[in-house]
């Protein structure tokens, strides 16, 4: 990839294609078993590495799990996830979510949760079905490819910002190949299990997992499309010293 080359399509088509790849990315929670060729996985990671990164640190490390390796990892996590006596005392690798939920974040969290459960016909208080649905995370929602992302523990918050850009680049590059993804913080609770299963050294911290594959569009949970706030809700434009417009 020549990073200084001209676009391969017209400006209008380029705009539409990039916008489509970003806007069509959504979290898929049911995948087809259709294999993803290794060359496609490598191509996605190859293009994602060109994302922005402070002083070119490139803090990402990726473990790609497929086939029996993915099944063994899923089984190891499920054995603990389904055993309350083993599961209750586990802590996430780091604090991904706030310790205290406040509005509007708690409202958005609840909305997407109940929209998903509503599509699946899971009623409020049905803890068994909620647990089963959440447990599908650890099967990578049946995707043929699981991605486990880690970062060196000596790095700081800035490198996590870089990492977010890398993850987004992975997901957008996947859309460019008609593939879908689901980024998953659910794996954080089982970072010790994952590290043992994949021989990840202690100096590496789990960032998140991700499912990769072809969406099963017949599954009702994949009909979920979450809301996004309009630009006017989160942007302030500063034009001069006397005025600011939202």
UniProtKB/TrEMBL annotation:
<keyword id="KW-0285">Flavoprotein</keyword>
<protein>
    <submittedName>
        <fullName>Nitrobenzoate reductase</fullName>
    </submittedName>
</protein>
<keyword id="KW-0560">Oxidoreductase</keyword>
<dbReference type="InterPro" id="IPR029479">
    <property type="entry name" value="Nitroreductase"/>
</dbReference>
<feature type="domain" description="Nitroreductase">
    <location>
        <begin position="22"/>
        <end position="214"/>
    </location>
</feature>
<keyword id="KW-0288">FMN</keyword>
<dbReference type="InterPro" id="IPR000415">
    <property type="entry name" value="Nitroreductase-like"/>
</dbReference>
<comment type="similarity">
    <text>Belongs to the nitroreductase family.</text>
</comment>
<dbReference type="Pfam" id="PF00881">
    <property type="entry name" value="Nitroreductase"/>
</dbReference>
<dbReference type="GO" id="GO:0016491">
    <property type="term" value="F:oxidoreductase activity"/>
</dbReference>
């Amino acid at each position: 990839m020549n990073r200084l080359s001209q676009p391969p399509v017209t400006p209008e088509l380029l705009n539409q294609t990039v916008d489509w790849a970003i806007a069509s990315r959504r979290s898929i929670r049911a995948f087809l078993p259709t294999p993803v060729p290794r060359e496609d996985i490598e191509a996605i990671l190859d293009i994602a590495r060109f994302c922005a990164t402070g002083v070119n640190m490139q803090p990402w490390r990726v473990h790609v799990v497929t086939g029996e390796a993915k099944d063994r990892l899923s089984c190891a996590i499920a054995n603990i996830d389904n055993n309350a006596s083993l599961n209750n005392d586990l802590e996430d690798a780091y604090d991904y979510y706030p310790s205290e939920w406040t509005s509007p974040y708690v409202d958005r969290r609840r909305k997407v949760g109940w929209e998903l459960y509503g599509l699946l016909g899971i009623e409020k208080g049905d803890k068994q079905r909620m647990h089963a649905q959440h447990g599908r995370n650890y099967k990578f929602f049946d995707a043929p490819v699981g991605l486990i992302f880690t970062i060196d523990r000596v790095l700081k918050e800035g490198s996590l910002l870089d990492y977010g850009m890398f993850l987004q680049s992975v997901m957008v590059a996947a859309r460019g190949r008609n593939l879908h993804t689901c980024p998953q913080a659910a794996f954080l609770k089982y970072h010790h299990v994952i590290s043992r299963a994949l021989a990840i050294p202690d100096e590496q911290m789990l960032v998140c997992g991700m499912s990769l594959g072809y969406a099963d569009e017949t599954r009702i949970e994949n009909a979920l499309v979450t809301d996004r706030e309009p630009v006017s809700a989160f942007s302030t434009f500063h034009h001069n010293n006397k005025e600011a417009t939202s």
